[in-house]
Structure formats: C-alpha cells, structure tokens
TrEMBL record, chains A, B:
<dbReference type="Pfam" id="PF18776">
    <property type="entry name" value="Hexapep_loop"/>
</dbReference>
<dbReference type="InterPro" id="IPR011004">
    <property type="entry name" value="Trimer_LpxA-like_sf"/>
</dbReference>
<keyword id="KW-0808">Transferase</keyword>
<dbReference type="GO" id="GO:0016740">
    <property type="term" value="F:transferase activity"/>
</dbReference>
<protein>
    <submittedName>
        <fullName>Transferase</fullName>
    </submittedName>
</protein>
<dbReference type="InterPro" id="IPR040730">
    <property type="entry name" value="Hexapep_loop"/>
</dbReference>
C-alpha cells in the first residue's frame, strides 16, 4: 500500500473518532473519491510577494493542485485542489477586540492544517476565534468540493460539498452539503443539508432550509464519488479554462486594460468583452466573461461573473456565480450564491440589495429585485420573491419572531442589517474600493503582483503523490 | 539601491580580497553584466525524484533560471541560469580512497555555494577533494558563461567564460576564458586563456595553449558584457529552443521512442529525425537534432548533437558540441569541445578516439580521424592533425618529455592513456551503458523521472530578484 493511502486511512480514522457521538462515518465519502494516481498528476503553488507575510511549512502531505499564500503549515494532510489563503492574516502586535476584551497578538497568525482531507475547499484567514488568535487550526477534518472555511477554525468535523463555515468555531460537527453557518461557535451538532443559519448570540438568529427536491437538483452529495447537480455541472464545464492560466510557468500581461487603482490577478480567467473600472479587485481563480465590473467592485476567488454588469462597489464573495444579470451599486452577493439568468429571462438587482450566501436565483422568467432587499433561498419566478425576500428597511424594524416562507428570523432585525452592512463596508475598504489616489489603500492598490511557485510530489516510488518537507520563510 | 545590487557588490569585494595577490579585479566582469531586472524575469527549478538524495537550502540569494538536484546549499550568492547538480553525490558511509588512505564519510556530500556569482555555470558533484569529502564548497568565486565546475571545490577564484575546472581544488586563482584544468590542486595561480592543462603529480603533465587569434575567434571574454565569439553565437542561436521545454509546468511525453534501458529527460530539446538506442542517457539541457545515438551513448547537460551519428558507447561531456559528424564506437568528446563539420566538409572519428576537453574541430575540408587517436587544440584541415593529434598507442610508449606543435607532454604516457580510459569506462558504467536487462544498472535505468519544481524571486520591492529562504528535505 502506498504511503498516501495509509495517510488517507489515518485521516478517516481520526475524523471518525471525533464524530463517534453522532456516529458519522466519513470513510465512504473519502475512500475512492480521488484515484491515487490523481494526486501525482497535479502540482501545487505558493504565492510570493512583498505585500504578504510569508511562512510555508509542508510535511508528510499531499498538496495536489493546491494554492497557498501567507503563513500556512500543513502536516499529515491531503489537500486536493484546495486554496489556502493567508493574505489577511492578523499580525503580531495587532489587538483582537472581542466583547470589550482586548487580546494583543504575541505572534503572526498562521493557518495550520493537520490530519485533514480537504477537496477543492477554500480556506480563508483571519480566524475569528478569540481563544486562539494566532493559530487558525483545521484538524481531523474532511471537507469536500467547493466548501468554504472562512475565518472558521474546524476540528473533528465533516463539511459536505458547497458547505460554508463562516467566522464560526466548529468542533465535532457534520455540516451538510450546501449548508451555511455563521454562528460564532458550534459543537457536536449535525447541520442539515441546505441549511442557512446566521446567529449572533443575544442579537438575532436567521434560519432557512432548502426543500430537499431543490437541493438535490443543485447539490447532490454522493458517497464515494463526486457530488452531482447544477452547481457541479456549472463549475466542471469551466474547469479547462483554468488549466490554461495555471499551466504556463511564466507571467503574461493581462488581456484587458487595468485602470489606476485596480488589480487583476493573472491567474483569473478573463474572456470575451470584459471591462474593469478603477479600484476593482479581481482575485486569482475568479472567472470573468463578457463582464463589466464598475468602480470598486471586487470579484473573489472561485466566483464567476458572466454576461453581467456590476455597477460599482459590488462584492461577489467566494464561490458566488452571476450569469446574465445587472447589479446596481453596492449589491452584495454572498458565498456560493448562484444567480443564473439568461437573455430571455434577465435578472436585475437594485442598489444596496443583499443576496444571502447560498442563495439560488435560477430564472424561468425575467426578475427585477428592487433596491434595498434581502434575498435568500430559491427564486425562479417573480412570485418567489414574496417568500424569499424582504426589504432591509422592514427587517430593521423587526424585534422578536418573524417567519416568511421557510425562513425564520428571531431577534433584533436592525442589528442583523447593521452587522451585514458593516461587513460589506469592511470588505470594500479592505479591498481598496474607496481608494482616492492617496488614501484608503486596500488590496487592489497594494499590488497583486504575486509570483506563483510550483511544487510537485514525488513522481514515483513509495512516496508517490506525497510532497517532500518544505519550509519557506522571508 | 536594491538588496541584490548590494549583494553583488559584496561578492565582488570578497572575491577581490582573495585575488589581491595577483591583484585581479573581478568588478568590471560582473558589474553591469546582467541588468537587475533580469534577475526577476526567470524562475529557478529544483528536481525531485525517489532516486536522488534531497536537501535544498537557499538563503539570501538570487537563483534566476538555475536548476538544482540533490543536496545543494546556496547562501548570499547570485546564480544566474546556472545548473547545480548533485545526482552523484557521495553518501554517508561511502569510503573515499585516496593514495592508499581510506576516508569513510560521516555525512552525505552536499554542494555548498557561498558568496558566489555564477553565470550559466554548470556545477557537478562528487568533489574529488579528499580533505573535505562531505562538502563540495564554492565560495568567494565569480564564474562566467558556460564554465564548468566539475567535482572541483573553488575558493576565492575567477573563472572566465567556457573555462572548466575538473577534479581540482582551486584556491585564489584566475582561470582564463576557455581554459581547462585538471591538476588535483591549484593555488594562487593565473591560468592563461585557452590553456588545456592536465596533470597528475608524479605521473604526467599535458599542456596546450590555443593561439590568441584562434581563441578570440571562438571565445572572446569582455569585461562588463557578454562574451563573444563562435561558441557564444552557437549557444545563443539555440536558446529559444530551451525556453519552450522549460516554460510548461507540466510533463509531456517524449517526442521519440525511448527503448528499454534508455532514458530521455523531458527537459532535453529533441528535434528533427532523432533516434536513440538502448541504454542511451540524454540529460536535461541536452540538445539533439537529427541525431542518432547508438547503444549506451550518453549526452550530458549543455551538449549539442546535431546531424550526427554516434555509433554507441559514446560520451559527449558537458558542453560538448557535435555538428555533422559520424563518431565510431566509444569515441569520447570532452567538456566544451566544439566539433563543427558540414555536408561539404564532414567529420569522421574512428573507434576509441579521445577528443580532449576544449578541443575545436571546425572544418574547412572533410576530415577523417582514424581510430584510437588523441585529438586536442584547433583542427580545421587534415594537415592540422599532424600537430594536434597522436595515436593513443604511441602516447602509451612515451616516457619523459614529448612535444608536438604547441602541445607539451611530460611523464608516463601509458598512465595518461590509462587514466583517461578508466574515466570513460566509469562514466559509461555510471550512466548505465552496460545494462544487460538485469545487471549493470546505471542512471539511465534508475529513472530520470524527476519532477521539476519552480521557485521565483520576490516580484517587486526591495527584495526584487532575491529568493526567500527555502528549505526542502525528504
């Protein structure tokens, strides 16, 4: 048996030990999912720039097709086409404020992955966890296709495909496919597939769950093989386009104009008649086709913007997909949201609207979402908006319980809206959307001139598919 | 001033301190030679395979376009398109025999480059130095285009373009352009340009020096800019072909049949109607065009074999160039030899002949070198063979002094011939030329399935062109 097979078995055992209470066996989801030869076929990358902290340490792991930036330690883990980004890591001396307490950091934050099996998972830094501000730990965890682990330390858990854990400490949990949790802390829980759950203790609790029939059509998790459904079909159909940008070792100039204050990763796919305005940030692994991104818009990793116009200061979060839509200024599209319109059935979303993470808008008729709305769930016709959207203004007035269709909100609506808006403003600021030529410098201006460096596994022998021990520092 | 400029200045000062006795200033050869932007334009590689030892450690250095295999430590150095190979490094527990003494190695051998500036230089392992068998040190040294440092620890020295130091410990020396030394040990000496010097203390001493007019035509070293001459023109004209094999990050299948026991590096350039037989080894950065390599032939790095037939068990050493020639079995072509014939003026070399390192055969008429000859110096017509070649059999009978043209031999001819033949046999064996399907396994059979991994420097900022600290182990 190859060493990589032993490693995978050991990871399965470790996760199962953690999940012995709900008695969940991750084995069937992991074994046979990726043929051993595949681990050897791809190469991994690390990014190098003067604008990001730097420390990589890889040991006893397979990193096939994965990408790393910042400070990342990976031990005894299998990362398959994952994306581990530390470009907003907290720094030594920073002070983390949490409920009035001030925690100064005695070290730079580092992403540490140990005994994990992550498939096509995006890990983003700045762990929200006030208990361990210097280490963003992912341990004894299996996470499947297009899951997002966003500022969320995860231990002993299973994340289904397209699941997102956002600013949440997760301990011994099963997060079902396409479920989204942003709840601060979660232990020994099974979150059902297609659940959208946002909670701030004492403030509010937002929950929605997709109907099973809809969920299966869009994300159908299967043990022992790739997930199926509309979302997988969509990304798989565009896989080849990324191959071409990553195959070349050398840099190429961007294929479109990059105006002042804007940044376009050369590892983004840019096709057709695409235009970006000032202060736009297009991350690596973003996909733009016949797209217009207005001033200060940002397109995050794994997002797709196709035949669409974003009028400015728009956030398209990790994994967000926008096809044939016109989005007014400051429209926010959350993680893994899927907005698919067409020439016959176009989509318009008015200024300042918030499309919740994991929302599916897949149109059978033209739909026009007015400004200032919160949208969630599944929308295919105008009538669906009745139960799947709400004016932010109305939500702000809610105090106590409110139900709308399958959505249940409890708590202070104003705080919910305020928290969301605050976060959107933070994202825009951090990415440089408000740069005026001198002030408000963000990621777009700091330069995305990152060199991408290739690492490959042992090509044959017992260690085939595993990487050597690599340590990289400034 | 960028950090890389400071580094180059410091290296110049260190080399000059070592060379204060002959008062040689390397500054003019180094300053301005490579524009600072160039260091940032290229990426470096390291090779990974289960068949080679592994430890890379890079610190405070620029490695632009360089390649590493085995165990290599580089500190405070500038390696520009150099090739540092440790694929035959001595191993812990090996016993180095030297003049009856047995030195067991307490550690694996490692190539260590410190405060060096090497341009397009090939460094090959297995340091012959019995005093430091575990460390092959190159320190306080400047070495220019297409120089070879072959098993030769070098300290405080300057090597001109196309110079070769072979199995020689070099201390505070200036080795002129296109000079070749294989003399065991050398200190505080200036070796004149175009000198070929092979000495084994108490056994023999072979010397030849190219006429200045010929030398300048083939290798003309200039301070502050690239060398000129036929050899530079030749390699520069084929530079683009290498770019294409190194640009792609992924492996491609070889473009020609690779028969049993043979190995063809996928980082070799193979063009036209080229064929290789069993047990052939074609190294990375070898260039084959309309070439036939018979059984057990090997083509080493930086060699070029064009429109030529090598009938078997041929060695084409590092930097050897063969154009339009037919070479009988066991013909040996030494380092940086340049054999250029043409359709009208073809070259034939008979079985078992030895073309000395740094020999120039550049034909104005057809030339047929009989079997069993030693060839050196500059040959353009048949008549030149009179003073530039000798039957090995005749040389074997020499005892004492013998002069032929500009060549001067002193000592025991039989020992010289025997030493040469012994080395050729060793090269053939080590490379797997005598593999019979079971026994005599060499490099060709051990597999050249090496993965090539890219490293890039900081793309901008103060550290532009310098690489981070990188440590890679099994």
């Amino acid at each position: 048996m190859k060493r990589i097979e032993q490693l995978i078995d050991r990871i399965i055992d470790r996760v199962n030990i953690n999940l012995r209470e709900p008695a969940f066996d991750v084995g069937p989801y992991v074994r046979g999912l990726i043929p051993v030869e595949q681990f050897e076929r791809f190469y991994a990358f690390y990014g190098l720039s003067p604008h990001h902290p730097l420390h990589f340490h890889f040991r006893g792991s397979s990193l096939a097709g994965s990408y790393f930036l910042g400070k990342c330690i990976v031990e005894h883990s299998v990362l398959y086409k994952s994306d581990i980004r530390g470009d907003e890591l907290k720094m030594r001396g920073d002070v983390l404020c949490h409920k009035g307490l001030q925690v100064p950091l005695h070290d730079d934050e580092v992403i540490r992955i140990k005994d994990g099996f992550l498939v096509k998972t995006l890990v983003h830094n700045y762990s929200h966890d006030p208990e361990n501000p210097e280490e963003f730990l992912i341990q004894n965890t299996v996470s499947l296709h297009y899951a997002n682990i966003h500022g969320a330390p995860v231990e002993g858990s299973f994340l289904g495909p397209f699941a997102t854990v956002d600013l949440t400490t997760v301990h011994d949990c099963v997060i079902g496919p396409f479920a989204y949790v942003q709840v601060g802390e979660l232990a020994h829980r099974e979150v059902e597939p297609g659940t959208i759950w946002i909670r701030s203790d004492g403030d509010f609790d937002f929950r929605y769950r997709f109907p099973d029939t809809v969920l299966k059509r869009y994300v159908n998790a299967l043990s022992g093989r790739n997930p199926e459904g509309v979302l997988m079909d969509f990304v798989e159909a565009r896989k080849e386009d990324f191959q071409e940008v990553f195959d070349g070792a050398v840099r190429r100039p961007p294929r479109i104009d990059v105006p002042p204050g804007a940044a376009l990763s050369r590892y983004a796919v840019v096709r057709g008649d695409t235009e970006i305005a000032e202060n736009v940030l297009v991350a690596q692994r973003a996909y733009l086709e016949d797209a217009y991104l207005g001033k200060g818009a940002n397109a995050q990793e794994n997002c797709y913007i196709i035949r669409s116009r974003l009028q400015g200061w728009n956030v398209t979060a990790h994994g967000g997909k926008i096809i044939h839509a016109v989005l007014g200024p400051k429209v926010f599209v959350g993680f893994n949201a899927f907005l698919r319109a067409s020439e016959d059935c176009p989509l318009k979303i008015g200024e300042g609207s918030i499309v919740m993470p994991h929302t599916v808008v897949d149109l059978e008729e033209p739909v026009d979402i007015p400004p200032g709305r919160l949208v969630w769930g599944y929308v295919s016709r105008r009538a669906d908006l009745e139960h799947q959207s709400l004016a932010l203004e109305d939500l702000s007035r809610v105090e106590g319980l409110m139900e709308k269709g399958a959505m249940r909100f409890e708590g202070n609506g104003a705080r919910f809206v305020e928290a969301f808006r605050h976060r959107i403003e933070h994202i825009l600021e951090a990415n440089g959307a408000y740069f005026d030529g001198t002030n408000n410098v963000g990621h777009a201006q700091k330069g995305q001139n990152i060199s991408f460096n290739i690492m490959q596994p042992y090509p044959e022998g017992e260690m085939q598919g595993l990487y050597p021990t690599i340590d990289i520092r400034p």
